[in-house]
Each structure stands twice: as C-alpha cells, then as structure tokens.
Amino acid sequence: MAGDRFDVGDVERQSQSDPGLVAEAGLDLEIGVLRGGGFPVIRDVVMVAIVAVSGGSLSGVQGLYEACARIAVARLQDR
Predict the structure, then answer these.
(1) Stated pTM of the model
(2) For 28-74, what is each residue's pLDDT tens digit?
(3) Quick check: is 47 in a domain?
(4) Which residues does 2 contact at the CB level (< 8 Å), separation at least 6?
C-alpha cells in the first residue's frame, strides 16, 4: 500500500468484507487499525495535498467528519 493514492475511508469500508486486508494492516506497524478520515486532493491527476480529520470514524455518525472535509475541499476547488 505504501506510496499509493487512496482514500482511507474507502479502504476502511473495504476492510469490513476483506479479512485479508485487516490482517495485512495489522502486521504493518505504521497502519495497525484501519480507520477512515483521510483522503488525497487531486488536481489535474497530480496529488497536491492530503486531508486528514481526527476521529473520522471513532464516534457519532461514521464518516461524518470526512464528508464535511470533502465538502470544504470541493468548495475551495470551485474558486
């Protein structure tokens, strides 16, 4: 997974039906537990930033913080 551009929310959702992915993440000391809350910002096929939110899926509505961050980024990209 290192170096890949992926949305961690998508990876977390995929892990719910893929025990192999959970096992792979658990063996990697830099990953451990898969949680949502981060995504790359891509402009013209180039990753220009990464947005991470704290507590993205730890409490409340799952994915709420990530969804709010996506809306903020989309509004900025429209400018």
Answers:
(1) 0.52
(2) 887 777 776 777 787 787 878 878 777 555 555 666 777 788 888 88
(3) yes
(4) none
Q: Is residue 32 part of a domain?
A: yes
Q: How far apart are CA 64 and CA 45, in angstroms?
A: 26
pLDDT band at 2 (very low <50, low <70, confident <90, very high): very low
**Number of domains making up the chain:** 1
CB 5 within 8 A of CB 15: no
In a domain, 2, yes or no: no
CA-based angle 54:61:67, to the nearest 5?
Answer: 60
Domain extent for 64: 8-77
